[in-house]
Amino acid sequence: MFDILVIAAILAVTVTLGLGLYSLFRGGDYARSHSNRLMRWRVGLQAVAVLILVVGMVWKATQGA
């Protein structure tokens, strides 16, 4: 279960990072309206990914597996 969640979180961060880089390279009005919002989404998704990893490691340590 945690493996799927970790992969989904990493994929979400990667897609958001790619969209943010595209926005920066495109420039102009598009970059002004999207870059900051995409950066905030990426940071939030990274926090969720780290939280999933921590919960998974704690769960695995307490289960003794």
From TrEMBL:
Key words of the record: Membrane, Transmembrane, Transmembrane helix
Keyword Ligase listed: no
Domain HIG1: 1-65
InterPro entries per record: Hypoxia_induced_domain (IPR007667)
Keyword Membrane in record: yes
Pfam families to which the protein is assigned, alphabetical: HIG_1_N
Transmembrane segments: 6-25, 45-62
Protein name stated in the entry: HIG1 domain-containing protein
Lineage: Bacteria, Pseudomonadati, Pseudomonadota, Alphaproteobacteria, Caulobacterales
